[in-house]
Amino acid sequence: MKKIAIIIGLILGIIILFNLATHYYTEYLWFSSMGVTEVFLKPFLAEFLIKLILLGLAFVFILVNLLPLITVLELPGIRVVKNNETITTPTFKFKKVHGIIIAFLLGIIWVALLPSIWDKVYLYLNSSPTGLVDPIFNWDERFYLFTYPLLTAISGSFISLLFLTALPLVAGYLVAFNSNIYSKKERAVKYAKTQGAIFLALFFIWFAATRNLSMASLLLKEGNRFYGAGYTDIHARLPLIRLQQIIAVILAVISLVNIKVKKLKLMGITAGLLIITIFGSGIYAAIIQNFVVNPNEAQKESPYMGYHIAATRRGYGLENIKQIEYPLKKDGINLEVLENNRETIENIRLLDYRPLKQHYQQNQSLGLFYEFVDVDIDRYKIDGKYRQVMLAVRETNIKSLAREAQTPVNHHFRYTHGYGVVMSPVNKVTNNGHPTYYLKDMPVTSSIGINLERPEIYFGELTNQFIVVNSNYEGVEPYHGNAGVNLNLFRRLLYANKFKKSILLLSSEITPESRIIYYRNIVERINKVAPFIQQDSDPYPVVANGRIYWIVDGYTTSSTYPYSKSTKGINYIRNSVKIVVDAYEGTVDIYQFDQEDPIINSWKGVFPNLIKEKEDFPQYLKPHIRYPLDLFTLQSEILTVYHTQDPAVFYNRNDVWEIAVERYHGNEVKVEPYYIIMRLPHHNEQEFILKRPYTPMNRNNMVAWLAARSDGEHYGELLLYQFPRGQHVEGPSQIESYIDSDPYISSQMTLWGQGGSTVIRGNLLTIPINGSILYVEPIYITAESRSLPELRQVVVFYNDVLVMEPTLEGALKRLFGEGEGVKPQDPVDTDDENLKELIQRINTAFVNMENAARNGNWADYGKYMEEVKRLLESLERYLND
């Protein structure tokens, strides 16, 4: 049995060692293939070295404390009655070797339970002062971003070691005190008192040392009205924390002195004072809050609210935002203004990304195993003009294959990559409401002169499985890139174990030229190369230089920025880097775009060869840099409250905004930030911006809109345009209400919604032009027999006039050129006989439209719809006369 146990133990040990070797060696091979071995070796070696040092310190600390106990600890023999005979087992005496074993095991347990600390150590060592200090202690931001997290980790580690060491000591002394060996019991009591005093001294020293952390935490906590220390914290809690610190130092000294003098009374009095200050601080703070602060809260908290507002704006990168009054004009738009803003009009996004994805998937997937994950928005120079486009990449989704085709060969050798890009202008559709294409099909055809030499997509958002390229499997095209790890017999064995795929070891089609490519999902790939970067949720593809590139915005964040509001666990964020991934080669290049961010500067010190300068960003990709969506969404949410910098306004909450809402699929939803090409007020050039509108709290009128610039030297600038007070500007939800209440438009939508069809209202866009706002909403119709939404109408609102036409140009002509629009809720008089006849003809045309819709005869439907329009125009002229 003993031999069998040894054999089983050896086998298990070999398996464990082989799995560990597989993991670390294959990880090293991958990092080496990416040229970033420092990202693998530095954290691994640093963490190993730190944990080894901590293990040594813990071992010595535990052993030194255990040795006195070992000298007095004995386990008395156990009396056993057997065959009417009492047998007493020998007394078990502990030896130093037992203490060494226990100390080592406890040290291993302690180190294993500790969280990773290498990053905090490295960041601290590579940090430098920022020159900005908090308003209470005048401590540099460096303390909060780097020192505070490290000291907090050290503090937690030390106190856990103290308690872990105390556990065997308490257990051992309890055994000794209950032993019948009285001679050693006296020594045990003596040792216990000494060690108890030492442990108390260590605890009080730790307590005193961590009071600075408690002071700092006052600036990080959430209060009743704001984050950070308020009047009560500064005038009540802070003095008591300092008093606790002094008392704890005194107690530590008394504990050490008490080893000799053994005056427990003095120690008890001082300890009682510490307990009173700890528990009494809450009572004292409550008294100050209720009787001093609350009666004059606005005045007392005013400076601290000012600190909070300034820190929150700084923490979320809003300190340099420009707040501008929008030059509102009643009649700012006419034909001449539209012509001067032709690029804005030509780039109004009529295509909604949600219906467009359905079109792409239905018409351009061109294979069961191809799929479009997302539709992104960008801009390109096309025929010398700045054009906004929507595009998506055609990726491989192996899960879409038939069940019979779900084989290891298909998964990992045959269906290795996606192919090509689909691109559409944002404002052009066919006669049947379908998108038009700049890029489409396989091979990719282009109507705009953008050529793809490498349309293959080996790295994307759906590329989750490993692949083997350049094998001998028939029909698989060769891979000419440099990604992946070369395979030999030994590596095949390791990878077969890593991925639990025997085909890697047994396949005869793998050659010496074959390579295995893994971690192909761009999110996972970036996370492996730069785990300290938080990625934007919307990677977007760019067609440039004959290839497809992914651009991903990267953030550095912190949760320990003083006085700043916490949102989803962070209170500091910077778009510090842009990350570029080649869809064919899989290279990951990181470029620093924020030179002032102390966190990315520290990481650059940790990995000096990983992060490149902004100036090195490829020229062919610079025109496609855009302000990141996640950051803008977060900043726009923060600004609903923090657009004001006046503590009195902040306290009263009488100028709080909300994100404007719109209607989509019958539900009210927040307006998503959207990219648009337009000319900003007081600017001469059209540019690509990201914008979002605001309404006042519990109101529907629009009060402001936020814009983020993306082009050239103005990249990253935030502009907050506020409408003049006292002037009414319709918000998106009000326009939606006008559409719902308009007799003609609402009846049309009701009609279209019958007979199995569904009406989808796209994004309601607010387009600022020359001091006025133009509102545009596309209308899609999906027939029951057809899964694809068709863009059928465009609703435009301006200056109390609402029109709906099949095209945007047609709607603008009705508004500003050929004819007038229809005012919302325009009343109709039905007393006149001629008027009744006209209404009857309109009803007849509506019935014909309904029948055509039910029969799916869309040509007749369009004819009857035009007849209804003509009749309604006649009705309008009749009423005006």
Q: Please report the total strand number as a whole number.
A: 35
The overall average pLDDT, rounded, is 89
The radius of gyration is 36 Å
Q: Considering DSSP H and I runs of 4 or more, what fraction of the residues is helical?
A: 40-55%
**Number of H- or I-type helical stretches:** 25
Which regions have little confidence, pLDDT < 50, spanning 5+ residues? 819-831
Specify the structural class. Answer: alpha+beta
Spatial separation of the terminal alpha carbons: 110 Å
Largest sheet data: 6 strands, mixed
Quaternary status of these chains?
A: single chain
Strand content: 15-25%
Overall shape: it is globular
Write a compact overview of the structure shown.
The chain crosses the membrane at residues 7-25, 48-76, 97-118, 150-176, 197-220, 240-259, 266-287. Helix content is 46%, strand content 19%.
Structural features, described:
This protein is an alpha+beta fold and 881 residues long. Among the domains are: 1-33 and 466-519, no CATH class; 34-302, no CATH class; 354-463, no CATH class; 827-881. The chain contains 25 helices and 35 strands. The strands form eleven sheets. Strands 5, 24, 27, 28, 29 and 30 form a six-stranded mixed sheet that branches.
